Amino acid sequence: MKPIKVLLADDHRIIREGLTHLISDVKGIDVMGEAGNGKEVMNFMNNHKRVDLVLMDVNMPVMNGIDTTQMLSKKYPKTKVLGLSFYNDERYITKMIEAGAKGYILKSTGKDELISAIKTLYRGQLYFSPEVSGIILDKQARQEKTNDLSADDIRNLLTEREIEILGMIAGEMTNTDIADKLGLSHRTVDTHRGNILKKLGVKNTAGLVRAAIKAGFID
């Protein structure tokens, strides 16, 4: 079996050296090189015939991990990307997956999990740290909850004032605009917005807009 050829991409040299130290003595995995930013990743890829997997830091200067992953997915679709970050933030996780990453682990991950993740991706499967998996499942649950709601459900869940505010949010009005139009304090509008998010099981404005469309508030 050919060794798994890995490229390490992280803007912190000490982390790259630590990862190299962790991986270098593992049979069946070869560290091909290191990169400090996305531009260096692409330069490396353009000059090497085979890299099976890039261990990709999400936050890097010059070109971040999300943009780099998107470029890699288009130009080198056979190369797997394993996202790496200090942050188990849903935004980063979602953007990395949408860009084409096949896995996402945290920098607090131990050696055994790191090796397992690399080998899992190489076999063509997905791998996410337990903390990351929990966030993904929570997001899916929220989306499913919203998708299951009918227009009548949405209207029945919300008060008249909340329906009014939801329509304004969907119309791209800011909290300040809404407060001025309704003669409410900014804090009161914030409270209404939080209640709407909670009742509909969504986390951001995009989710509110989807709900407003479903309820027929906007086309």
Give a quick set of tags describing it:
single chain, about 220 residues, alpha/beta, Rossmann fold, Arc Repressor Mutant, subunit A, 6-stranded parallel β-sheet, 11 helices
Number of discrete helical segments: 11
The CATH class of the largest domain turns out to be Alpha Beta
Report the C-alpha radius of gyration, rounded: 22 Å
Shape annotation: elongated
* Portion in helices: 55-70%
What kind of sheet is the major sheet?
A: 6 strands, parallel
Number of extended strands? 6
- CATH topology of the largest domain, which one? Rossmann fold
What structural class do the secondary elements suggest? Answer: alpha/beta
The overall average pLDDT, rounded, is 88
CATH architecture name of the largest domain: 3-Layer(aba) Sandwich
What would you call the quaternary organization? single chain
Unreliable sequence segments: none
Count of all domains: 2
Could you characterize the architecture of this molecule?
This protein is α/β, with parallel strands linked by helices. It has helices at 13-24, 38-46, 65-75, 90-99, 111-122, 130-148, 151-157, 160-170, 175-182, 186-200, 205-214, and strands at 4-9, 29-35, 53-57, 80-85, 103-106, 127-128. The protein has two domains: 4-137, Rossmann fold (3-Layer(aba) Sandwich), CATH 3.40.50; 149-214, Arc Repressor Mutant, subunit A. Helices cover 57% and strands 14% of the residues. A six-stranded parallel β-sheet has the order 2-1-3-4-5-6, sandwiched between helices.
